[in-house]
Amino acid sequence: MDWKTWLSIEWQQVVGIAITALGLYLALILFTRVMGLRSFSKLSSYDFAMTVAIGSVLASTILTDSPSLSQGLIAVAVLFLIQGTISLIRRKVKPLKSLIDNQAIILMAHGEYFCDNLEEANLTKSDVQEVLRKNGLKSKSEVFAVIMETTGDMSVIKNDNTTPDWSLFDDIRDSHLLIHPQKQSDDAS
Hints:
Elements: H1 3-7, H2 11-35, H3 45-63, H4 69-92, H5 94-100, E1 104-109, E2 112-113, H6 115-120, H7 125-134, E3 143-148, E4 154-158, E5 172-173, H8 181-188
Parallel strand pairs: 1-5
Antiparallel strand pairs: 1-2, 1-3, 3-4
Helix pairs in contact: 2-3, 2-4, 3-4, 4-5
């Protein structure tokens, strides 16, 4: 390896990188202001894909001669437009929302694992146990629910004496599993 070539950079390259980085940074501020803060949220899998795609475009545009700054700006603008269009469709066309979005799924409730849901999410009990430990739980009896969110994150909800607001769970598939077995039998009486 030629160390001199590997470590060297010409001043024109430094100027080019600086101008490109500044141009893209200012464009990101503008696009985020126009399209809203959701642009870099992680509320859904397509939001995450947007963030990764933008990062890839920025890196290749800043560090290489091709794509050019103009091409990078157009690519970023198109990604923002696609995300804005998808967000609009999600809000306005309810039947398409279910095609676009993943649905949260219950992996565990009241200390019981839901093996079918774990299998569907390609997870094991061990994966859930790791998340429980990271949340400081020492016993499955402390768990009200473990939910795989639409982003792939797992939410751990601890048992306490608070009566659940069931509307917080109505967008989760199999949300009826959250109703404690004792409550279900009381309701049936």
